[in-house]
Amino acid sequence: MATEMHLKLVVNLLRRGRDLDRFSTVLTGVALLVGLAPLFGVAPSLFAALLASALLFCGLVQKYFALRVALDADLFTCLAQPPQAFDLKAEALDSALHELGLQPAATGSRSLFERSRGALRLLRFQAFWVCAQCLIVLLACLCMPWLSLIA
Predict the structure, then answer these.
(1) How many domains does the chain have?
(2) Residues contacting 34, CB < 8 A, separation 6+
(3) What domain range is 72 assigned to?
(4) What are the backbone dihedrals phi and psi of residue 107, each rounded to the nearest 5 degrees, phi first?
(5) Which position among 30, 31, 33, 142 has the lowest Cβ density within 10 Å, counted as fewest Cβ atoms?
(6) Which pLDDT tens digit goes with each residue over 46-65?
(7) Residue 145: predicted pLDDT
(8) In the 3-class helix/strand/coil scheme, how is the chain assigned residue by residue?
(9) Sign of CA dihedral 67, 69, 18, 75
(10) Which stretches of the chain drop beneath a pLDDT of 70?
């Protein structure tokens, strides 16, 4: 059944958000170490402070999307068991989201493809912020030799 395979694929893609989150957590930890280094006797540096701030900001935004992606992965896992009952479970999910104030009442029932498109969009946002962290680290590694020449 195409719907069953679609649900399984979306669930497996959304689970990759955990890997992105773990990697981002390491980069955010590096940011905290760099930012807190002056407390341990390392000479303070404006470049290091800016680097740590940018990495920390990207890491926190990524963490927000990671939480949303993890929630969607869990919800799609529920919707996929068994896939034949998708419509009934989707209505129950919409009702529960509305009751908890997580979805406006005006939102009509969405199809599986609309739901999966929205969930994968969150995963792309999460990946974007992880890539931003990687780019910041890469730029810092490329700039550090040049900064030592200036100072």
Answers:
(1) 1
(2) 48, 51, 52, 55
(3) 2-150
(4) -70, 120
(5) 142
(6) 888 999 999 999 999 999 99
(7) 77
(8) CHHHHHHHHHHHHHHHHHHHHHHHHHHHHHHHHHHHHHHHCCCCCHHHHHHHHHHHHHHHHHHHHHHHHHHHHHHHHHHCCCHHHHHHHHHHHHHHHHHCCCCCCCCCCCCHHHHHHHHHHHHHHHHHHHHHHHHHHHHHHHHHHHHHHHC
(9) positive
(10) 1-2, 83, 106-108, 148-151
Structure tokens at 133: 């962290």
The encoded tokens of residue 34 equal: 């760099």
Q: What is the pLDDT of residues 97-112, one digit of tens each?
A: 888 887 777 666 778 8
What number of residues does the chain have?
151
Unique residue bearing structure tokens 């999307």: 65
